[in-house]
Amino acid sequence: MRKNCQKMDTLRSLVISAAFLIVGHASIGASNAIAEVGDSPATEPLTPFVAEYSAYRFGGEVGQASLTLEPLTTKQYSLTYSSKVSKFFLSDKRFEHSIFLLEDGQLVPSQYYYKRSGTGPDKALEVNFDHDKQQIKIDDQPPLPWNGQFDNQLFRIDVPRQLARGKTEMTYDFVNYRGEMREYNIQVVGTEQLELPYGMLDSIKIKINRGSSSRETFAWFSPSLDYVLVRLQQFKDGDEQGDIKLSAYRTTD
What we know:
With 253 residues, the protein is mainly beta.
């Protein structure tokens, strides 16, 4: 019984890191993030892409993840994230889908959907952002005031945009995949050359402060690949929880 609990803890730790995947580009507290970094926002359209990642635990590959950005109209986009992780007899599959707008250079969420299946209970969440009433509707709960929060994914798109503008500090308020309000503080800590399944890449390394003294999360973005996320690594109490590395990337203009 104790052995099975240890295996479950191992998978959960990895899944937390895989689900976070900043990652992959970037979830938002749009108003806060843009206001703090300053300067006029970029107004150019977003570049559609597909990024694929391999997930590791203690050096061994345990799963895959992918992130896809697609245009729906000239101002509306779709962002999907999926992951599949397995270790021992345990498994975890996750899917996230965001619909959002690019308005005056800012990312504005419209709809967010999350689904998880595998070992343990299945879970799902739907979040709608009412632009007219300035409210957030989470599943069947009473609506909440919308004060510029992002959904759980949009920072994956915004962080690369801010890094391209030379920003070194960012703050994001958002609704996470549990329907909870959260805040991330992001800071550039240096540059590194990485050897990844994709190949050798120069990168910008950031630290993500999640408000937890026991957890540390680092992410790397490559300027040569439109500042796409190329690696994500998470620690708890000094022990590695998971490591996600870019294996393939292509633009789909």
